[in-house]
Amino acid sequence: LLALTTFLCFVASGAHEAYAALAGMETVITILFLLLYLLRLDARMRCLFWPLADLFNSVIAALFLLVVCLFAIIIKTNKGILAGGVLGLILLVLCIVDAVLLCKKISLDKPRGRSAPAK
C-alpha cells in the first residue's frame, strides 16, 4: 500500500516520469510477489529459489528508492513530490527490513521443500 501511495503522489503531482515509473514498478513487483506467496505458486514452481529472488528485489528496490527519493526531496518542486519522496524513504526502510528478515530466513545449508530427510 505504501508503494501504491508513493506512486499516486508522484503521478498526481506531475513529477518526473522516472519517479512515477520506479514507484509503479515496485508496486507491481510487490503485488506479484504477494500473489506468488498467497497462491502458493512458489511451491509449484521450483525452478527458482523465490526467497532469494525476493531478497534481490528488496535490495535493488532499496538502492533505486534511495536515489530517486533523495532527488525528489532535494528538488521538491511541489508538496506532492515532497510527500512522494518522504513516503518513498519510508518504503526504502521497509525494503531494508524485508531484506534483513529474508537473510535471516534463508539458509543455504539446510535442504528445501519435501525432499528434506525426516528426523
UniProtKB/TrEMBL annotation:
The chain crosses the membrane at residues 24-43, 55-75, 81-103. Residues 1-20 form the signal peptide. It is a multi-pass membrane protein. GO terms for cellular component: membrane. Residues 1-107 form the MARVEL domain. Keywords: Membrane, Signal, Transmembrane, Transmembrane helix. Its main location: membrane. It is found in: Membrane. This is CKLF factor.
